[in-house]
Each structure stands twice: as structure tokens, then as C-alpha cells.
């Protein structure tokens, strides 16, 4: 009776083994794709200006929880589709190549996650192919170790003397095989997730080709080795341990290669971003230097007017003494016009910010954009004029470049203080759609040439955080508004 129970258990394990394997693969797949996913409802919310305004004005805890839950939902749907597809093929007893079955299951999963998160399709293709190859290598390594351990245990004296224990050994080794496959797949997937830092960035064609090639070449190489391994076993009637060792080594090297290539590529991208940040900082320094030179020129002109002011006053006095009031008024207006032309007509409380605002006001006028300024520099504060200059340069440059055509093109820059909070608001006319980086909460630049672009808002946020503040972006009434809050002492 005990022996019959063991045989029944062995039969049940043999039947449940593929189901358990499919479940393990699905779970590993869920853990693998979750950090890259967003749900379709959240994508629609992100594209909605009202939700952006609501979520970004509140604390970032709410969006973070929403993102985390949406990632779970999207990843779970993809993993469930994979598992159900594998289960369907198994229950229907479809006679088909195992790689075709795995490929179709991965394809179904790809369709589901693309439906759940309708963006960055190249990245999803990379995830599917990478997981397929990592899981293939993990299953092969587990199988080789399983065969080696199983053969070793069966050759022991104890098992030879107790043949009734073979069923128990088989059950234990099946559990061991699944455990090894789970450990290897999880380890490879975790390493890929760890080294792939910029998960929210759109993957380009060249990046896809570069990152997907190691997986494809590894699978092809493994298939070639497996073919000769099986061919040798059929021809000779025995398994050569050398082939097993080489296959095991090849799977390990291929898995490590995939991870190293991703790590190196992410390092290259980080270095490029660092270089771009350095270029942008250099450009900003040149801009500030140019503004300082303009300030010096402004004060030189003011000194010239001050030097001639005595003569101007004498001329006005003589005109009034001679009752030539009309000529005096004309002369006074021309003097005021000359003074306004020199000073630019913008007084913000600091000569450097004056020049910046005047320069952008002139550029806006050239482009036919109405420029409204109510900006005031917080003179009695701990603010560094260089930091404020960087904020103004980046905010107004973005406003100039992204002001949409409409009934009335306009840019507004204002500042005000609420207790110890100093707030700068830059708004410009905008009609259109914006893609958002869900991790940073900032718009993704639409410029094809990223040289010097895409770093303005991160730089503004960096300065805001320096003063224990942050930035907020709203889209409302066909206006793009950037709000920067700085805490002053």
C-alpha cells in the first residue's frame, strides 16, 4: 500500500511538474517586468492636465503609491497571460516544439503588457527576449545539475540496495530542479533590473539592437551546443560529461554577458548625461558672464547720462525761464525715453536679473510674443543671484521655445512671497500634448537633438531643492505654468 501511494505521488508530481514550472516562470516574469511598467489608466491620467495639476500639487507620496500599484497590476496581467498560455498548451497536449510554445507564451505576454502600458514598446520587446534567454539558460543549468545529481544519487550503494526509494529520490530531485531553475532565473532577472537604471527612458532602435543581440546570440549558440550534445548522446548511447560542462559554462557566460552589456551601456548613458550636464553648465556660465558684461555696459550708459544730467537740468531750467513750456515738455519726454531705453524699463531689484529679463523681453518682442513681467528679486534674503539667474534663464528659455501659436502668444513671469516661501511663476501659451517622465514627474523633451536640451527643468528643481523647495507644473486654460518654490531665511 505504501509503495502504491509512492507511485501515485510520483505520477501526480510528474503531472504537476510542468504546471509548477509555468507558475515559477510566470512569477519570475512578474518580478522582472514590474519595475518597468505602468497601467493604462495611469497613463491616461498622466496625459490629463487636471490630474497632473492635482497629483503634482500634492505630496509625491500619492503618485508614488499609484505608480507602485499600477506596476503590480500591469506586471501581474502579463505574467498571468504567460502562465495561462503555458497551461493551455499543456492541458491540450499540443505536440509542438518546446521553443515554439515558450515563444508563443512570451509573445502573448508581450501583447498584454503592451496593451497595459502603451508606451516604450521597444523596451518591452527587450524585456521579453531577455527574459526568454535568461530563463532558457537557467533551465539548462538546472537540468544539467539535476542530471548530474540524480545520476550520482542513483549510483550510491544505498539506493542500489533500496530500489523502492527511487520514486522518493525522483520526487525530491524534481523539487530540486524547480528550485534551481527558480534561483537561477531570479538571480539573472534581479541583476538585469539592478543594472538597468534608466527604466523610464524611451528605448531607441540602436539601443534595442545593442541590448538584444547578446540574448539572441546566446540562445542561438546554446541551441547549436544542445544539438551536438543530443546528437552525440544518440550516436554513442551515452552522455559525455564534457558536453554538459561546456554547456553549463556557456550558459553562465551568456547570462553574465547580457548583464555586463546592459551595465556598460547604462554606464555610457550616465557618462553622456554627465557630459551634457557639464555642457549645459558651461553654457549657463557663458550666459551669466554675458549678462554681467551687459550690466557693466548698462551702468556705463547710466554714468554717461549722470555725467550729462547737470547740462540737461540747466537746459530745462532755461526753457522754463523763457516760458518755452512746450519745448521743455518735449525735451523732458525725449530725456525720459532715452533713460528708459538705457535701463530697459524693467526694475526687478537686482541689476543681473534686470538684464536677463530685458534680454528675454526683447527676444519675445522679436517673435511677436507678449511679455508680461512682475518679477522682483528678494534683496534681503539668502538667495544667490547666480541661482536665481539659472532659474530665470532656464524657465524663460523653455517658455520662448515652447510658446504655441494661438490667439495671443504670451509669456508671464511673476514672483511673490508668502511668509518665508519665495515663489516664481513662469507661464506661457501652450496648446498640445506632453509626454511625462513618470519617475521624475517632469516633461520629456521633444527635441530630436538632445545636445543641451532636456536639462533645464532638472536644473531648476536641483536649485529649488538647494533652498528646501520644489517645482510644480500645471497645464490649464491652454497655458503651461512652471511654479518654483524657494524657502528663504
Question: What can you see in these coordinates?
Answer:
- The protein folds into two domains: 2-277, no CATH class; 346-489, Heat Shock Protein 90 (2-Layer Sandwich), CATH 3.30.565.10.
- It has helices at 2-33, 40-46, 49-57, 61-91, 98-116, 121-154, 157-161, 166-195, 205-236, 241-321, 325-343, 351-366, 385-402, 456-466; strands at 370-374, 410-418, 421-429, 436-437, 442-443, 470-476, 479-487.
- The strands form two sheets. The protein has a five-stranded mixed beta sheet. Strands 4-5 form a two-stranded antiparallel ribbon.
- With 489 residues, the chain is an alpha+beta fold.
- The chain contains 14 helices and seven strands.
- The model is unreliable at 39-67 and 448-452 (pLDDT under 50).
Number of strands: 7
Whole-number mean pLDDT: 79
- Summed up, the domain count is 2
Structural class estimated from helices and strands: alpha+beta
Gyration radius over CA? 34 Å
* Spatial strand order of the main sheet: 1-2-3-7-6
Query: Main sheet, how many strands, which sense, barrel?
Result: 5 strands, mixed
How far from one another are the termini?
84 Å
Q: Note poorly predicted spans.
A: 39-67, 448-452
Keywords for this entry:
489 residues; five-stranded mixed β-sheet; two-stranded antiparallel sheet; 14 helices; 70% helix
Amino acid at each position: 500500500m505504501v509503495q502504491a501511494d509512492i507511485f501515485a505521488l510520483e505520477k501526480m508530481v510528474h503531472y504537476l511538474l510542468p504546471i509548477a514550472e509555468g507558475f515559477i516562470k510566470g512569477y519570475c516574469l512578474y518580478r522582472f517586468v514590474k519595475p518597468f511598467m505602468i497601467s493604462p489608466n495611469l497613463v491616461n491620467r498622466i496625459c490629463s492636465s487636471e490630474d497632473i495639476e492635482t497629483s503634482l500639487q500634492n505630496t509625491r507620496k500619492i503618485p508614488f503609491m499609484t505608480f507602485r500599484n499600477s506596476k503590480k497590476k500591469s506586471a501581474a496581467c502579463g505574467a498571468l497571460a504567460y502562465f495561462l498560455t503555458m497551461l493551455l498548451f499543456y492541458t491540450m497536449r499540443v505536440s509542438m516544439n518546446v521553443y515554439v510554445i515558450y515563444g508563443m507564451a512570451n509573445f502573448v505576454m508581450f501583447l498584454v503588457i503592451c496593451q497595459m502600458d502603451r508606451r516604450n514598446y521597444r523596451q518591452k520587446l527587450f524585456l521579453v527576449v531577455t527574459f526568454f534567454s535568461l530563463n532558457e539558460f537557467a533551465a539548462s543549468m538546472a537540468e544539467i545539475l539535476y542530471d548530474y545529481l540524480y545520476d550520482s544519487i542513483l549510483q550510491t550503494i544505498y539506493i542500489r540496495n533500496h530500489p523502492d526509494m527511487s520514486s522518493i529520490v525522483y520526487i525530491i530531485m524534481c523539487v530540486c530542479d524547480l528550485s534551481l531553475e527558480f534561483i537561477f532565473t531570479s538571480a539573472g532577472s534581479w541583476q538585469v533590473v539592478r543594472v538597468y537604471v534608466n527604466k523610464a527612458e524611451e528605448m531607441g532602435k540602436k539601443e534595442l539592437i545593442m541590448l538584444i543581440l547578446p540574448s539572441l546570440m546566446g540562445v542561438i549558440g546554446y541551441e547549436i551546443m544542445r544539438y551536438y550534445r543530443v546528437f552525440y548522446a544518440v550516436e554513442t548511447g551515452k552522455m559525455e560529461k564534457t558536453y554538459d560542462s561546456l554547456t553549463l559554462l556557456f550558459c553562465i557566460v551568456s547570462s553574465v554577458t547580457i548583464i555586463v552589456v546592459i551595465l556598460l551601456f547604462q554606464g555610457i548613458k550616465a557618462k553622456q548625461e554627465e557630459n551634457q550636464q557639464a555642457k549645459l553648465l558651461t553654457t549657463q556660465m557663458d550666459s551669466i558672464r554675458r549678462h554681467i558684461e551687459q550690466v557693466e555696459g548698462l551702468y556705463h550708459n547710466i554714468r554717461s547720462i549722470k555725467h550729462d544730467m547737470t547740462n540737461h537740468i540747466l537746459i530745462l531750467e532755461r526753457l522754463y525761464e523763457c516760458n518755452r513750456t512746450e519745448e521743455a515738455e518735449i525735451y523732458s519726454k525725449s530725456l525720459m525715453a532715452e533713460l528708459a531705453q538705457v535701463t530697459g524699463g524693467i526694475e526687478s531689484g537686482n541689476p543681473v536679473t534686470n538684464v536677463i529679463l530685458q534680454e528675454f523681453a526683447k527676444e519675445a518682442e522679436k517673435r511677436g510674443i507678449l511679455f508680461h513681467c512682475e518679477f522682483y528679486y528678494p534683496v534681503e534674503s539668502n538667495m544667490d543671484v547666480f541661482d536665481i539667474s539659472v532659474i530665470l534663464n532656464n524657465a524663460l528659455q523653455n517658455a520662448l521655445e515652447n510658446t504655441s501659436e494661438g490667439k495671443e502668444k504670451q509669456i508671464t513671469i511673476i514672483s511673490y512671497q508668502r511668509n518665508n516661501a519665495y515663489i516664481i511663476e513662469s507661464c506661457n501659451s501652450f496648446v498640445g500634448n506632453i509626454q511625462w517622465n513618470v519617475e521624475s514627474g517632469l516633461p520629456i523633451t521633444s527635441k530630436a537633438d538632445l545636445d543641451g536640451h532636456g536639462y533645464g527643468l532638472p536644473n531648476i528643481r536641483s536649485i529649488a531643492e538647494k533652498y528646501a523647495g520644489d517645482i510644480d507644473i500645471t497645464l490649464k486654460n491652454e497655458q503651461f505654468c512652471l511654479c518654483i518654490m524657494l524657502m528663504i531665511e
